[in-house]
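Practice problem 4.
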């Protein structure tokens, strides 16, 4: 998907940087939150507060919720694959995995975006370079997994499996989201997605966790609110805008900055010290993202006239 001619490419690049900066703290915040708040309840708080923030913004800007059943049905699917499933899996896995390693594994969705499109829709170029990229990415994930105690703790193996499933879910969501909503206002998409996710997560939380009996710490409570506002509500607006303007592959560029920032934040807030193998795995995954998506990524962030000039 190429950048529309009426969109400023410099603005899109700035938005990619902002998106990476706002998403980077999420992994450390989740790690702090799950210390005294169960995963389902933490994610319920995250989606409900994010939905409220977006609804307030919608009211201020004098916009209204859609009445189209088609949009709500697409939002339900998007909520499942982009919010409910990955949010819950990441929150559960974060109880057993350092936030830095969580961030590294979560850089892998672009790899699975390529795999899913190459295998099912088959509209992606399958070159030796891209196949090499996929292989390096999968090796990188294995290096990260086996860089920790996961090799000797079954629950950590399951935690990494949950994180990998979350990346696959994110990849599927990126593919669906870039095609399902077309020209729909990104605010509408974000609000509807958060509302539908809340409608699923809140009943699940009430049934499983019985949140009225919980006694969360101040640190976990502050982390939950910050996660909802700073790392969910605002980034969702940016994310769905970027999906519409530069597509799923172009949006994946933010992974290059998000991962190092997330590791630094984990070190500062949680005192995490990742082994050298984790950094090696990070390099392999980021190189993989580059190799599998470089052509699409370059085309995505250039306007049509710029691509013409480049061709000359």
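Answer key:
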């Amino acid at each position: 998907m190429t950048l529309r001619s009426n969109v400023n490419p410099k603005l899109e690049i700035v938005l990619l940087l902002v998106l990476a900066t706002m998403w980077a703290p999420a992994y450390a915040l989740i790690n702090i939150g799950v210390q005294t708040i169960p995963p389902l309840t933490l994610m319920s708080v995250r989606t409900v507060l994010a939905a409220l923030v977006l609804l307030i913004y919608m009211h201020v800007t004098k916009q209204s919720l859609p009445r189209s059943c088609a949009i709500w049905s697409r939002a339900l699917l998007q909520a499942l694959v982009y919010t409910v499933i990955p949010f819950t899996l990441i929150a559960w896995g974060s109880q057993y995995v350092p936030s830095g390693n969580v961030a590294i594994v979560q850089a892998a969705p672009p790899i699975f975006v390529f795999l899913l499109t190459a295998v099912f829709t088959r509209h992606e170029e399958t070159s030796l370079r891209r196949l090499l990229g996929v292989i390096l990415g999968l090796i990188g994930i294995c290096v990260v997994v086996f860089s920790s105690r996961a090799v000797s703790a079954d629950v950590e193996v399951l935690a990494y499996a949950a994180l990998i499933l979350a990346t696959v879910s994110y990849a599927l969501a990126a593919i669906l989201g870039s095609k399902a909503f077309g020209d729909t206002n990104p605010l509408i998409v974000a609000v509807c997605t958060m509302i539908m996710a809340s409608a699923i997560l809140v009943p699940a939380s009430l049934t499983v966790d019985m949140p009225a009996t919980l006694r969360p710490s101040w640190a976990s409570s502050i982390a939950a609110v910050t996660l909802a506002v700073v790392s969910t509500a605002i980034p969702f607006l940016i994310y769905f805008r970027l999906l519409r303007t530069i597509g799923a592959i172009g949006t994946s560029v933010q992974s290059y900055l998000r991962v190092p920032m997330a590791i630094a934040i984990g070190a500062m807030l949680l005192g995490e010290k990742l082994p050298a193998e984790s950094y090696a795995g990070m390099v392999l995954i980021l190189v993989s993202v580059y190799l599998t998506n470089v052509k699409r990524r370059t085309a995505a962030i250039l306007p049509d006239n710029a691509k013409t000039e480049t061709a000359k």
